Amino acid sequence: MTKSRTVLSGVALILLFAGVGAASLLFRSALPAISPPAPDSFDRTLVKQGEGLAQIGNCTGCHTMSGGKSFAGGLALKTPFGTIFSTNITPARETGIGAWSRAAFVRAMREGVARDGSHLYPAFPYDHFTRASDRELEALYAFLMTRPPVEQPTPANRLVWPLENRWLVAGWNLLFLREGPSNDNDRGRLLAEGLAHCGGCHTPRNKLGAEDTAHAYDGAWTDGWYAPPLNATSPAAQPWSADALFAYLHTGLSKTHAAAAGPMGGVTRQLSQAPDADVRAIATYFAGLMKDAPGARTPLAAIDRQSEIDKSDPEGAALFAGACASCHAPGAPMMQQGRPPLSWGTPLRVDSPHDTLHVIVEGLASPAGPTGPTMPAFGNDFTDRQIAQIVAYLRARFTDLPPWPDLEQAVAAVRKGVGQ
Hints:
Radius of gyration: 23 Å
Low-confidence stretches: 1-9
Strand content: under 5%
């Protein structure tokens, strides 16, 4: 038996034990089906509020597969326990939530239980959504029930045995779910810990897949990318003021940091359409958490050790000159337009090279849309060794941090879509 299989079997046994101790929670009753409400039966103001909350929660990011219809589900979500496919949340009666009453929707959001009584896997972050207010959940329900219905079945999940048995999730809920709306008066914290579920990416998880709340916002891996810390351990070279963070969240770009990439790119595209007041509240909250980070206390000057690094790494220097300098060297047209120097970007300052490698291998689509800056993909242009040389050169020239080890292996892992 492999080590991973042993760990997963141990996880299953723990969940089973917890489930037995919570027998009354194992099987939940189905709630009555309804006919899909007429879209014009919902108050337009409520629908509009729900739209903004859906953007805060980036609902399309998980519930829309590439090239698919909005909210129709089918997106493959890879977890340590297998692949889970997101569900159809359009008001389709047979394959969506058209037959769900508002009470059924609220139960799913607060307790992680579907209308038919089955447990939802916590890849759906109901452990965050439970904190939303009654009014917010009512608004979300109104918004989703006024979307175009799409009859599209959800593919079967591919989970390791015995986790295909949904009743085991009752044990997970007993251990980790603290149900109920929050009475927090800090709107930013309420949204960050609730519908925006920021900890879902930025907080590390334990062996059972639950967030390690003792290390909230300490940074974590998601989809092969490293989501950096959002607290006093932030590696950002420049301070994250509330204004700077608002601009970043609202546009995906920052003049003193970098562009949003990876999963964060999709988040900022949604936040660009969300209510300004809510986005600013989130920005203010996280700026407060990061106010004591090293970069906030002592902002770094732009580092560029070109002369000494070029002498010690002529191959890296040549590759940089050919592929990167036209945009990123001092005096390049893009730099004259106010883009931040590479030394201010967080990807070069974290302990892993994966985010930097992802951007080089896959390129970067502008979070700001077609008018924003983009970066072409170089994955097909260079070998693993050459990309490793470029990244080693970037780290040496634009930071004062130690070199990353095993870069060629990291390049190969990124090509395969493997995180850490």
